[in-house]
Amino acid sequence: MSQDQRSQPTPVNLRKRTGLTQRQIARALDVRESTVSEWERGLSVPHLPLSKVKQMMEVYQCTLDELVEAFESLNKSVMVSGSSQNVEN
């Protein structure tokens, strides 16, 4: 893995940087563990109110820019693959 890939924000990288598990992220955000897994695998992106976005920044210990970049890159890959899915949170 290149240095660029390690430093590029992704949901997995953000979570691992905090040392939290998918289960801990899910509990902190009040979503299903499978939802966090789907975010990390690029199968879906968060569809959350702004209050949850702030909470995500706190849980992932990141800036808004990092959060947007992490999920925006996933959103592009979901759109390109044609497998965009809406997942209830």
Written overview of the protein:
The termini are far apart. This protein has helices at residues 3-7, 11-18, 22-29, 33-41, 50-60, 64-81. Helices cover 66% and strands 0% of the residues. The protein is built from six helices and no strands.
Write the SSE topology.
Blueprint: H1 3-7, H2 11-18, H3 22-29, H4 33-41, H5 50-60, H6 64-81
Give the gist of this structure:
This protein has 89 residues and is mainly α. 66% of the residues lie in helices and 0% in strands.
Individual helix count: 6
Gap between N and C termini? 32 Å
- Low-pLDDT windows of residues: 1-5, 79-89
Instruction: Specify Rg, calculated over alpha carbons.
Output: 12 Å
Question: What form results from the Cα inertia axes?
Answer: globular
Give the structural class: mainly alpha
Mean pLDDT: 83
- β-strand percent reads under 5%
Instruction: Give a short account of the largest sheet.
Output: none
Number of strands: 0
Tell me roughly what share of residues is in helical segments: 55-70%
The SSE order reads: HHHHHH
Please give a handful of descriptors for the protein shown:
66% helix; disordered C terminus; single chain; 89 residues
